[in-house]
């Protein structure tokens, strides 16, 4: 079918997300896109008058392992989240900007370096992707026919591709929708973390966060749970060889992921025929 480079890229990002509870190779204090301010990062019920609320845990007196337990319990209640950031793979920067639900429905964009971007929509009925013109041109070049890039980009302009749920390329892209499940697994009691220590406090786009350092088989990871509200994760930094940074916001924001209109969709079989005719 189409080049699976971005499908593989999404799998890399998903693996990083699941590994340390998300991703990263870079400084702890910055990322491509900062998390939303405190008022938008977590539900209103958690952020309103948080500092004065007796339900907000005092993590200053907790051990690092106990803090992770509280993060896990809080994240386990989340119905949806917005994730934005990047991971490195073989020296190439892979970025993502995805809103995903606990039911693994999601919508967003995945980009692989200068290869181009793919918009992604996934729900229980199917997966739809829409590569941009840069992607189509990159694919044509990889296939040894760079002259066809413009024609292919024009042919599929504004069109969404879909196919069988077990299509390996589409399945690889849809894996990005398992963000919350990946975080839950990474923070689970059976996770492979070998040590955790608390650091000082830091600010993630205006929201105060506790710094929690975790070392496991995915490499050194730094968690930034909210300090003045329930400990929703605001940022995760993975400093492994293929690490990255992701910021989390828009907790529990309703998601309405709809299938694409039939007149905007092309199935994989028809797609292949059209590509071969160019």
Q: Which labels suit this protein?
A:
278 residues; alpha+beta; outer membrane lipoprotein receptor (LolB), chain A; ten-stranded antiparallel sheet; two-stranded parallel ribbon; 9 helices; 12 strands; 28% helix; elongated
Per-chain topology:
Blueprint: H1 5-20, H2 38-41, H3 44-47, H4 64-75, E1 80-89, E2 92-101, E3 106-112, E4 117-123, E5 126-131, H5 133-142, H6 149-155, E6 160-162, H7 168-174, H8 179-186, E7 195-204, E8 207-216, E9 219-225, E10 233-238, E11 244-249, E12 265-267, H9 268-277
Parallel strand pairs: 6-12
Antiparallel strand pairs: 1-2, 1-11, 2-3, 3-4, 4-5, 7-8, 8-9, 9-10, 10-11
Keywords: Signal
Signal peptide: 1-23
Organism: Kitasatospora acidiphila
Structure explained in plain terms:
By secondary structure, this protein is an alpha+beta fold. The chain has a single domain (5-277), classed as outer membrane lipoprotein receptor (LolB), chain A (Clam). Helices cover 28% and strands 31% of the residues. The protein has helices at 5-20, 38-41, 44-47, 64-75, 133-142, 149-155, 168-174, 179-186, 268-277, and strands at residues 80-89, 92-101, 106-112, 117-123, 126-131, 160-162, 195-204, 207-216, 219-225, 233-238, 244-249, 265-267. Strands 5-4-3-2-1-11-10-9-8-7 form a ten-stranded antiparallel β-sheet. A two-stranded parallel ribbon has the order 6-12. A hairpin with a 5-residue loop joins strand 10 (233-238) and strand 11 (244-249). Helix 1 (5-20) packs parallel to helix 7 (168-174) and helix 5 crosses helix 6 (149-155). The radius of gyration is 20 Å and the shape is elongated.
């Amino acid at each position: 079918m189409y080049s699976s480079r971005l499908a593989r890229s999404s799998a890399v990002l998903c693996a990083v997300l699941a590994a340390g509870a998300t991703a990263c190779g870079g400084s702890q204090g910055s990322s491509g896109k900062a998390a939303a301010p405190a008022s938008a990062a977590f539900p209103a019920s958690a952020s309103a008058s948080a500092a004065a609320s007796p339900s907000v845990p005092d993590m200053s007196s907790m051990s690092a392992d106990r803090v992770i337990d509280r993060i896990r319990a809080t994240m386990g209640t989340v119905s949806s989240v917005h994730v934005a950031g990047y991971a490195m793979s073989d020296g190439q920067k892979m970025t993502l900007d995805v809103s995903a639900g606990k039911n693994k429905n999601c919508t967003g964009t995945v980009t692989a370096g200068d290869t181009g971007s793919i918009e992604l929509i996934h729900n229980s009925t199917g997966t739809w992707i829409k590569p941009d013109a840069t992607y189509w041109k990159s694919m044509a070049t990889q296939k040894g026919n760079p002259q066809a890039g413009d024609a292919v980009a024009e042919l599929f302009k504004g069109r969404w591709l879909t196919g069988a749920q077990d299509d390996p390329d589409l399945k690889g892209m849809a894996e990005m929708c398992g963000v919350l499940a990946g975080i839950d697994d990474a923070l689970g009691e059976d996770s492979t973390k070998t040590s955790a220590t608390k650091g000082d406090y830091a600010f993630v786009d205006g929201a105060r966060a506790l710094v929690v350092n975790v070392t496991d088989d995915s490499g050194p990871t730094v968690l930034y749970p909210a300090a003045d509200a329930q400990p929703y994760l605001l940022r995760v930094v993975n400093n492994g060889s293929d690490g990255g940074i992701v910021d989390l916001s828009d907790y529990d924001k309703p998601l309405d992921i709809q299938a694409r209109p039939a007149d905007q969709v092309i199935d994989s079989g028809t797609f292949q025929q059209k590509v071969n005719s160019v």
